[in-house]
Amino acid sequence: MTTIRITMRKCDIFYSTSEQMLMLSLSLSLSLSLSLSLSLSLSLSLSLSLCVVFARVSVAVTVAAAGGRDGASVFCDACRLAPVYPKGLFQAPTLGTVASFRPVRYHLRPSLARLSVTAAMTRRGAANAAAAKESRQQRLTLKRPSAPRLVMTSKSKGAAPATASVDGIPQGITHKLPVGSVVKIFTVTSKPNYLLPWQMGGPDACSGSGFLVAGRRIITNAHVVSNYTQVRVRKHGGQFKYLARVLCINHTCDLALLEIDSDEFWEGVEQLQINTDIPDLDERVVVLGYPMGGDTLSLTRGVVSRVTTLNYEEVKFQPRHGPELLAIQIDAAINSGNSGGPVFRENGDIVGVAFSGYAGSADNIGYIIPTPVITSFLTSINTNGTSAGVCDIGIRYELCENPSMQRKLKMEQHSGIHVIKVAQLGPAAGKVKVGDVITKINDYPVANDGTIPFRGEERVSVQHAISSHPLGKTMKMVVLRDSELVNLELEGAVTPPLVECYREVGTMPSYFIFGGCLFSPMTSGLIEPCIDDFDDESWEASRKAKTHEDEQIVVMVSVLSHPINHGYNMSRIRRIHKCNNTVIRNLQHLKQLVDESDKYVHFELSIGKNIILDKAECLEAEREILKTYAVPAPCSRDLLSEKEQEALTPRNGGARSKRAKRAK
């Protein structure tokens, strides 16, 4: 009978080679009595119920096992090391035989200053001291595998062409990547203050990526140069930033085209060609760009995860309605600054433009704009001189997956989507009717779940058949109407949105001030800083389609406090329905109704709230209100006639005086 006692300064530690775990017990000491055979075969099974998890602790176990009569010793040291964080909690291990111990370095969770455990076993017999000493020097370290490395060799005069190779990847699939065609874009931006729409915000700076294409042009993302005041471009390995001119911005497909006049910039660079191929699932791709974390070119590698359709604005967490376009999801890292950079196959062919990386609860999700969307953007510019939006026929539909709905719509022999709304100003107006079942768009048969065949066994949303259609070209459609198939032809066009999505460069937001009440149309620029401040009625109206060309949703943004508007403080941004019992069409119409009113001006807001102001008093107080809040004019210049614009000078109150005279 031999007694084994394990003692610790703070707690007990046990190591299991079979489980590859360490576990600490809160006991200060543990005594065991056990029998050992003459062959030194020690087998104990000890399971403890309490696990204490540590972080940033490296444990190195050294075992000295010796035959003979004096036995062996086990030493365990713990100290702080590099931060490696394994997932999950450690489970209670079992203590195996002494001979099965293997010295391993583990990385555990949190701080433990230093731990020393000595387990001494004693039995009859002489110890082999030399073997014990040699065994104590053996330490094994669990090493992390090294990540693949891309080796790029620049091309020099008289040298072999540059190649790119990745460790661990079979030879023959790598190719020289055109790194010299990838540029860094520096943008200075300034956008209006939509809460004080007569002011511009301060300048800001951002950077993104881009790449050179045929025609001495540069492609990047629209959001990289949005609200720009100046854009400059630097080549890979260069030290100068060249002034660029923005030729076109298409926010719907998030693409922009730049141009640089300097001949020096284009010397010795390769202008890339773009085809319409879409990579296969699980195909390797490489993302090049200039993301955060450094100033030089960065490369990340991944595979194609899926091909789908997305509203590009929703992917960027913008509260805007829009068509869905084809998009490719990859698992390569896409970070801030990668936007606009090219994505290549490993043979050097372009497959898309990086534009969004998901930073939410999911990992390894990035999106790229595929080449068919890019070629459509470039074709539109070459044909029409610009690119504005993508095809949107202006319908809303529902899926027809329910058997009862299919029987009601007499779809036993057909499949498709059920039209529930048609925009009055959209291409489908007067041709597609509410209640129609769209069974085919161009050559794409539509399924009951709203998908169309894509390639092989893959399917995508029917939105792809619409958004990929060229603007100005005829779209063919087959609908099921009253149990009969009807062939229709529509023109590919853009349905005008009720809520303005983007302002034109160089323009300011529209506004109108009367009696200290600030009125403005509901736009995406106003929604962005005030998304939680709009009332429900404004949101409901924003989901509707335009009924006439100049229609706007007019809201009261705030009240510039003055005795004339006492009691009318607003906690939310509310829609203005009527002025003097007349339905408001747009902001210009509101100004006209106020100018034409007699003694009182009556505004009817959402939820039945009313604001009534004396017109003469408001006009007399207008100069004081404008001066107090540093407002240059009572309305934006786009609401004035040409004569009024000529008479209006900043901060002189000239427009106010003329309006006051007309009121008298």
Automatic annotation (TrEMBL):
Give a yes or no for keyword Phosphoprotein in this entry.
Answer: no
Keyword Lipid biosynthesis attributed: no
> Which InterPro entries has this protein been placed in?
DEGP_PDZ, DEGP_PDZ_sf, PDZ, PDZ_sf, Peptidase_S1_PA, Peptidase_S1_PA_chymotrypsin, Peptidase_S1C
Pinpoint the PDZ domain residues: 380-448
What Gene Ontology molecular function terms does this protein carry? serine-type endopeptidase activity
Name the segments for region: Disordered.
Answer: 642-664
Q: Name one Pfam family in it.
A: PDZ_3
Keywords of the record, alphabetical order, are:
Hydrolase, Protease, Serine protease
Q: Which GO terms describe its biological process?
A: proteolysis
Family named by the database record: Belongs to the peptidase S1C family.
Name-wise, this protein is PDZ domain-containing protein
Q: Which organism is it from?
A: Monosiga brevicollis
Lineage of the organism: Eukaryota, Choanoflagellata, Craspedida, Salpingoecidae, Monosiga
